[in-house]
Amino acid sequence: MLSPARVHALALAIKRRMKRHMGAGHDPYPPCPDDIQLSPSLRHVHDYEAAPLRLSWRNNSDAGAAEWQQTARAKLAELCGYANDGKIPEARHEQSHALAGSFMRKSCYLHAGTARDIPVHLIFNPALAGPRPVMICLQGTNSGVHLSWGEVRLPADVERIARGAPNALQAAARGYIAVAVEQSCFGERREQCLAKPSRDPCIDAANHALLLGRTLLGERVSDVSAVINWLQSSAHGLTLDLSRLHIMGNSSGGSTALYSSALDLRIQAALIGGSTGYLRDSIGRRGDASGQNVIPGILNWLEMDDILALSAPRPVLLFAGRKDHIWPFAGAEAVAESARAVYRALGAPDRLHTAAAEGGHSYHPDIAWPAFEALMAAGA
């Protein structure tokens, strides 16, 4: 026989299921008085209006733009835990693979420190003579870097590749040495050692990095800089033109590309998709299961337009879908319009462009590449 407590619990469960079946929510708590606000997000949205943004260009425009960039860049590096020790990582387990279309893939693991190995793949046309420009290629939140050269490892990869995911092949077809980097938490670098990992692939690493005063985004940007250190050496055996070192990515790959361009001045141009909007209007106003882009205290100092402006006067293209439900084009354009003030102050008002696709949150190579090539040609 069921106890009275168990009967009561079952009755509540049945009531809850019936309400859900009828499309009604079930709220077991008493009605909130009209003058009481209890949801945590209400407090945060209110406090965004008073965020000091102490180092924002809009509050420091009387300073020289170059001097402002130096101060803001140092603060951003501190807040996200970015570091570059300048050491050249050791390439381990190097292999070569032939790809369709006469392309070659050279793969290795870059040993950048204890328990920090970065899978890196160089995709290129060996028939082209050097020195060749370099494009660092980053994937978004998906199955991994193998999409960059069009390899299927999971069922969903077929659709992703059909939508244009092989960004490294696209770059190689345009004469680049494409450098595809596996981002932390994805593909080969997915979490495999925690006893009970969270469902989202990034939230555990994001939280654990915070315990060390770092962020997942800062760690990813630090990885990009370690890869660049290696590219500057001759260990890869290729002839590179590092005066034309560019970076590209979409979604979480776009975020890493944006912050990498802001923090590492060796990057000479950036193609950034589906990852730009004011922090207070984007990740600050929606659910966030991954924590990939959270930097503690950032709104005390800087907003997204300031971070974008740290790339000035280098060329940057922002692209996004008008129907993107995460990072819509309207947000990217608003951020770009504000950041152009710094580009103008540095005498390069035409080096920051935006391009819109009609679709949603996806990589749009048919829009991105022509717009980026036009931007680079204009500055040639």
Quick rundown:
The chain has 380 residues and is of the alpha/beta class. It has a 9-stranded mixed beta sheet with strand order 1-2-3-5-4-6-7-8-9, sandwiched between helices. The model has no long low-confidence stretch (mean pLDDT 95).
Total number of helices: 11
DSSP E strands, number: 9
Q: Give me the Rg, rounded.
A: 23 Å
Helical content stands at 25-40%
> In percent terms, what proportion of residues is strand?
15-25%
Distance between the termini: 83 Å
Q: What is the average of the pLDDT values?
A: 95
CATH architecture level-2 label of the largest domain: 3-Layer(aba) Sandwich
Unreliable runs, pLDDT <50, ≥5 residues?
A: none
Look at the structure and name the CATH superfamily of the largest domain: Alpha/Beta hydrolase fold, catalytic domain
- Fold-level CATH name of the largest domain: Rossmann fold
The helix-strand sequence is: HHHEEEEHHEHHEHEHEHEH
Secondary structure layout:
Layout (H helix, E strand, L loop, with lengths): L3 H18 L18 H9 L16 H16 L9 E9 L5 E10 L2 E9 L7 E7 L18 H6 L4 H7 L3 E5 L21 H9 L4 H17 L7 E11 L1 H12 L5 E5 L30 H6 L6 E6 L7 H17 L6 E6 L7 H14 L2
What can you see in these coordinates?
There is one protein chain. The protein has helices spanning 4-21, 40-48, 65-80, 157-162, 167-173, 203-211, 216-232, 252-263, 304-309, 329-345, 365-378, and strands at residues 90-98, 104-113, 116-124, 132-138, 177-181, 240-250, 269-273, 316-321, 352-357. The protein is an alpha/beta fold. The chain has a 9-stranded mixed sheet, sandwiched between helices. The longest helix has 18 residues, at 4-21.
